[in-house]
Design a protein that fits this description.
Radius of gyration: 19 Å
CATH architecture: Alpha-Beta Barrel
CATH superfamily: Metal-dependent hydrolases
Order of helices and strands: EEHEHEHEHEHEHEHHEHHHEEEE
Number of helices: 11
Number of domains: 1
Structural class: alpha/beta
Helix content: 25-40%
Strand content: 15-25%
Largest sheet: 8 strands, parallel
CATH topology: TIM Barrel
Bound molecules: N-carbamoyl-L-aspartate, zinc ion
Length: about 350
């Protein structure tokens, strides 16, 4: 049976939530990944190093006892973030970055930034102290067509930020469009991007096949097929600007299958297999290790992992659901679908 052994992967964009949900999802990421960049969009948001360290401790306490998973924390950037917080992030090993949510762009983004120029002094400090800025890149004007929001963010907001702060390290998170791929490719090395499994597997038809499909709804929303093709090309290109970030975002089944269903796909339990599937289809499995295990660490100036993981070529079926104790279920991305590569446990 064919196997593929690569440096253990990291997830550079992950939602773990807190409380009971955290307890129920953390093992899925810890089984697959050595490190993850943890998103700060809790309620209330993680806006300071102090809160980030408390959350970091909660995550460590929730880990299975034999796990060496390392959460890396991002802070939720607001117009009220004190400029002194930037130096604190830079000085602390557990905190790695700030996350910019334009106010209203996505789940728990109400506390985000309304006027981007209001945070320019913070961006100047981040540039100076080499603290990366992670961006949810969508404009929020409700009159703007939802499928145009990423493209317009790049034109209206990101190009001016990059012009003003040419050395600022930026990760354009969960990119979904040809324009985002082209933008990132055209920029110097301090600008990278993460790519999710859902945006590699699905185009926007997947939202409506045979009826509305709430488990394929995430933000930025799925785009048309030509954009998916651009993302696949970027992911398998071997260009170190593009790296793995699942954006795994657990919402209970009842909150997804709802008249006002939440945005977010839950991919953590099957993430590396979902990526491997695409790389395999494209005859580019030799490029998976760079994308999944090297380029993110390199971007953040962190060492590449010393541990490895092995995938085996075998046909298996993604479970229909995962229980969340006393609360309900999580439906994973591509529930019930068949895949051709499987992570062999234990990871180490
Ligand atoms: C994320 C969530 O649920 O926290 N949802 C999503 O659709 N991706 C937020 C985000 O990253 O946009
Ligand atoms: Zn996210």
């Amino acid at each position: 049976m064919q196997t593929l052994t690569i440096t253990q992967a990291d997830d550079w964009h992950l939602h773990l939530r807190n409380g009971n949900m955290l307890q129920n999802v953390i093992a899925h990421s810890a089984k697959q990944f050595q490190r993850a960049m943890i998103m700060p969009n809790l309620q209330p948001p993680i806006t300071s190093v102090e809160l980030a360290l408390e959350y970091h401790a909660q995550i460590l306490q929730s880990l299975p006892s034999n796990s060496s998973f390392e959460p890396l924390m991002s802070l939720y950037l607001t117009a009220e973030t004190p400029i002194t917080e930037v130096a604190k992030v830079a000085a602390c090993n557990a905190t790695q970055a700030f996350k910019l949510y334009p106010a209203g762009a996505t789940t728990n983004s109400a506390a985000g930034v309304k006027n981007l120029t209001s945070i320019y002094p913070l961006l100047a400090a981040m540039q100076q102290q080499q603290v990366p800025l992670l961006i949810h890149g969508e404009v929020t004007d409700p009159k703007t067509d939802i499928f145009d929001r990423e493209r317009l963010f790049i034109e209206q907001d990101l190009i001016p930020i990059v012009a003003e702060f040419p050395e600022l390290k930026i990760v354009l998170e969960h990119i979904t469009t040809t324009e985002a791929v082209q933008f990132v490719e055209s920029m110097p090395d301090n600008i990278g991007a993460t790519i999710t499994p859902q945006h590699l597997h699905f185009n926007r038809n997947a939202l409506f096949v045979g009826g509305i499909q709430p488990h394929n709804y995430c933000l930025p929303i799925l785009k048309r097929e030509s954009h998916r093709q651009s993302l696949i090309k970027a992911a398998i290109s071997g260009n170190p600007k593009f790296f793995l970030g699942t954006d795994s975002a657990p919402h209970l089944q009842t909150n997804k299958e709802n008249a006002c269903g939440c945005a977010g796909c839950y991919s953590a339990p099957v993430a590396i297999e979902l990526y491997a599937e695409i790389f395999s289809q494209e005859h580019a499995l030799d490029k998976l290790e760079g994308f999944a295990s090297w380029y993110g660490a390199d971007f953040y100036n962190l060492p590449r992992n010393k541990t490895s993981m092995t995938l085996q070529q075998q046909t298996w079926t993604i479970p229909e659901s995962y229980p969340v104790s006393s609360q309900g279920n999580l439906i994973p991305l591509k529930a019930g679908a068949s895949l051709n590569w499987k992570l062999i446990e234990p990871v180490k």
